[in-house]
Amino acid sequence: MGWKFWERKDTAAAPSTGKSRKPDKPRELPQDVGRHLVAEQDLDPDWVWNLKCVRRPKEGSKSAFYIRIFSPESVAQHNVRVSDYASLDSHMDLVIFDGWYDKENRTVKLDRLIKEAV
Hints:
Largest sheet: 5 strands, antiparallel
Strand content: 15-25%
Shape: globular
Number of helices: 3
Number of domains: 1
């Protein structure tokens, strides 16, 4: 019996093609982004740190990401399931901030899309 479950066999149906990126799930705000919202835009820290974000890599850069920030309460209220960055394409009315940030340079550029929620 060849039960070597720890050894992985490559099958013809699923060849290993190197790195495959999984889409990012909703997560806490990155420190630089949260700090930008609190310090630069004078928003309530308690409110800011309760927000969630989804991101995707920016083309041509390893440290820069496009980011969408939303409130988990408003998403739940509208019965929308956020699984990755593209899942908010049809629900841009729930995105509070949209923009990009660079982890390496600590640069943040956000546009406020919903003014009354802030």
